[in-house]
């Protein structure tokens, strides 16, 4: 365009001023990535900035090590240990703009950003304020005040490639009172608020005029959701009470403190191996964490949680102070906006932006929009929908039937396009014999269908985890680095492989120096060992060493080591 590819002269000048030493402005394709989380950072660390002009837009100018957030919420680990400035992580070659993207125009390839916002508080996209904990929160209410010092205008920015990596939001399922009275645990500010609310609850309980009932209410902590977030928070809270608070509030801890975890299903950590759920439930029992299974939270009020047991019509109120809401995630408003702009006919998956296996948003035909991490979901083609084509491709002699060798060719040739075929690869002969019901030595279209249907049942959306997001971010950097230019035809010409997720196992800390590790579905190296789920102290060492090595920089590694040693030697800082 007129201004070296920039939409307006102001836009051009702004970039030029920001990066005076960079003469390449306007000469390289511009890749814009939204977000500074688990998807964005590995991308930014590996993308070739000599080839692309790389711009990162996010309202959060730091990366957050989410797995350690439950530790921060009770002071086992300090705030600064789990965050790292995005500028120091990615260096000066990447342009970072602190702003929130509010709209995307995929036709004109322009994003609209609003930089009036500050840090993201996990209470919806549109909070343009900074959270300041009130002096006496009692754990249940929140106060959000406007940061008046900030005046930055809305702006548009052109892109050649856009990568959406904006993560997700907490899901309240519109249950009344959650937004107003419960704490989420998703951003650093949430963890700080929880830490302050716990301290406040104990100090309030120590007030001389407090009635015994009110003391019990103040010291009843409720966690809603028995997924990994809820389990890890309950575990850290129980450690805090047992290891530190009992020194300072011995009578309160002995008589009044209670931690309850409420889960709607019949197991906690239901996405993990059953052995792990059972271990965690027993372990929590030993740690004095009450687990209410098959119990649904219907409402949260200022000083109580309303619950209903499965199969019962009756609701019950339990008095409590701090409530932590960890019932899962939902797409952000911008994610849904992008889906609508592209068209809900193509973007039909409510979980996030639907992409093909190269992580390109479906419905954006020039391949200029990618989505990764929690805000994206990869389309998984079903084998049965393509059965005719697949059949004809291997039935080269047009016999209308496949022999074992042809079935083997089908599995081997098509596994990278249809990963669900992997379940056959180690046992092709057995699967062939099972599918060949009339023992003819051949599979017809009908008998092949039943085998392919079996493989299709193994299709699962990838979980919303840091592990998935970071592998996708890394894959996308490699993909863009490998493409000679952004022409979509290059994918075939240069044999760009689709994204394949390698699951390395799931870990969760369950308190009392114990963790659980589930290797189910892990590949490719780990599954040959057929590793059994691990639990207990050994797993806790694995958990610690894993997250220690995952810390991105030497600075945060050092801080983490110090925090762990400090907690071990001197206990946690229990002040607000
Ligand atoms: P995020 O990491 O959430 O990053 C999203 C980024 O987008 C943020 O920088 C945000 O500021 C930015 N953003 C938001 N809106 C906009 C906008 N409009 N414009 C521009 N930028 C925007 N996973 C694991 O694998 N292992 C674990 O042990 C684990 N533990 C967890 C513990 C907790 C307490 C939580 C909450 C999550 C945990 N997860 C874990 C899940 C993991 O954190 C997420 O799956 C991961 O963060 C997803 O990465 P992402 O890049 O999609 O999103
Ligand atoms: P989740 O979706 O994994 O679990 C939420 C739980 O809340 C479910 O078990 C659900 O049955 C329960 N629930 C929902 N509504 C309820 C209600 N009204 N009353 C009672 N229970 C209710 O959510 P999460 O734990 O927040 O995790 C979010 C994502 O982050 C997941 O993808 C998870 O894998 C990932 N994560 C991973 C780790 C880890 O690997 N250690 C840690 C934290 C989060």
Largest sheet, strands/sense/barrel: 5 strands, parallel
Instruction: Describe the global form.
Output: globular
Cofactors, ions, other ligands:
flavin-adenine dinucleotide, nicotinamide-adenine-dinucleotide
Return residue spans where pLDDT drops below 50 for at least 5 consecutive residues. 118-148
Beta strand %: 15-25%
CATH topology of the largest domain: FAD/NAD(P)-binding domain
Q: How many discrete domains?
A: 3
**Average residue-wise pLDDT:** 88
The structure class reads alpha/beta
What is shown here, in short?
With 576 residues, the protein is an alpha/beta fold. The protein contains 20 helices and 26 strands. The chain has a five-stranded parallel sheet with strand order 5-2-1-11-22, with no helix packed on it. A four-stranded parallel sheet has the order 15-14-13-19.
Notes on the protein architecture:
The chain is an alpha/beta fold and 576 residues long. The chain folds into 3 domains: 24-59 and 99-115 and 153-171 and 330-377 and 466-485, FAD/NAD(P)-binding domain, CATH 3.50.50; 178-327 and 504-570, FAD/NAD(P)-binding domain, CATH 3.50.50.100; 384-456, Orthogonal Bundle (Recoverin, domain 1), CATH 1.10.238.10. Helices cover 35% and strands 19% of the residues. The chain has 20 helices and 26 strands. Strands 5-2-1-11-22 form a 5-stranded parallel beta sheet, with no helix packed on it. Helix 2 links the parallel strand 1 and strand 2 (53-58). Helix 2 (40-46) packs parallel to helix 17 (466-482), helix 6 (188-205) runs antiparallel to helix 7 (212-218) and helix 12 (387-394) packs across helix 13 (404-414). The longest helix has 21 residues, at 228-248. The structure holds flavin-adenine dinucleotide and nicotinamide-adenine-dinucleotide (NAD). Flavin-adenine dinucleotide (FAD) binds next to strand 2, helix 3, strand 6 and helix 17.
């Amino acid at each position: 365009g007129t201004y070296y590819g920039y939409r307006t002269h102001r836009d051009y000048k702004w970039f030029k001023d920001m990066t005076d030493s960079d003469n390449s402005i306007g000469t390289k394709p511009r890749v814009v990535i939204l977000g500074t989380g688990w998807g964005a950072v590995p991308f930014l660390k590996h993308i070739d900035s000599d080839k692309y002009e790389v711009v990162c837009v996010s309202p959060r100018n730091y990366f957050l090590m989410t797995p350690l957030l439950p530790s921060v919420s009770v002071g086992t680990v300090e705030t600064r240990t789990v965050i790292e400035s995005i500028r120091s992580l990615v260096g000066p070659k990447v342009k970072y703009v602190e702003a929130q993207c509010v709209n995307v125009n995929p036709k004109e390839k322009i994003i609209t950003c609003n930089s009036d916002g500050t840090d993201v508080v996990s209470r919806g996209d549109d909070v343009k304020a900074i959270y300041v904990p009130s002096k006496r929160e009692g754990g249940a209410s929140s106060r959000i005040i406007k940061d008046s010092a900030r005046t930055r205008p809305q702006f548009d920015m052109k892109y050649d490639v856009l990568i959406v990596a904006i993560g997700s939001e907490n899901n309240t399922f519109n249950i009344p009172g959650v937004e107003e009275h419960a704490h989420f645990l998703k951003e650093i500010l949430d963890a700080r608020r929880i830490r302050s609310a716990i301290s406040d609850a104990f100090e309030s309980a120590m007030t001389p005029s407090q009635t015994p009932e009110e003391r019990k209410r103040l010291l009843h902590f409720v966690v809603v959701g028995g997924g990994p977030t809820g389990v890890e928070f309950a575990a850290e809270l129980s450690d805090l009470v047992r290891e530190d608070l009992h020194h300072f509030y011995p009578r309160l801890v002995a008589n009044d403190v209670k931690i309850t975890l409420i889960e709607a299903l019949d197991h906690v950590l239901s996405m993990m191996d059953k052995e792990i759920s059972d271990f965690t439930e027993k372990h929590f029992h030993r740690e004095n964490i009450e687990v209410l299974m098959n119990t649904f939270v219907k409402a949260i009020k200022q000083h109580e949680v309303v619950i209903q047991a499965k199969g019962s019509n009756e609701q019950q109120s339990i008095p409590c102070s701090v409530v932590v809401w960890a019932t899962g995630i939902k797409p952000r408003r911008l994610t849904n906006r992008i889906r609508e702009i592209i068209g809900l006919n193509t973007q039909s998956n409510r979980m996030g932006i639907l992409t093909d296996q190269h992580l390109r948003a479906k419905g954006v035909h020039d391949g200029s929009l990618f989505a990764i991490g929690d805000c994206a979901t990869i389309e998984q083609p079903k084998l049965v929908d393509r059965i005719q084509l697949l059949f004809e491709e291997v039935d080269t002699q047009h016999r209308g039937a496949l022999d074992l060798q042809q079935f083997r060719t089908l599995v081997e040739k098509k596994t990278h396009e249809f990963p669900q075929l992997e379940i056959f690869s180690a046992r092709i002969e057995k699967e062939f014999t099972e599918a060949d019901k009339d023992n003819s030595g051949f599979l017809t279209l009908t008998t092949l269908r039943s085998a392919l249907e079996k493989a299709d049942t193994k299709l699962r959306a990838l979980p919303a985890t840091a592990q998935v997001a970071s592998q996708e971010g890394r894959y996308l950097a490699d993909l863009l680095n490998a493409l000679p230019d952004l022409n979509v035809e290059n994918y075939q010409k240069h044999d760009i492989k689709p994204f394949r997720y390698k699951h390395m196992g799931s870990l969760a800390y369950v308190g009392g120096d114990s963790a659980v590790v589930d290797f189910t579905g892990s590949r490719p190296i780990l599954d040959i060992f057929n590793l059994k789920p691990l639990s207990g102290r050994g797993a806790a060492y694995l958990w610690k060493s894993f997250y220690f090595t995952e810390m991105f920089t030497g600075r945060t590694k050092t801080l983490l080591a110090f925090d762990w040693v400090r907690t071990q030697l001197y206990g946690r800082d229990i002040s607000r």
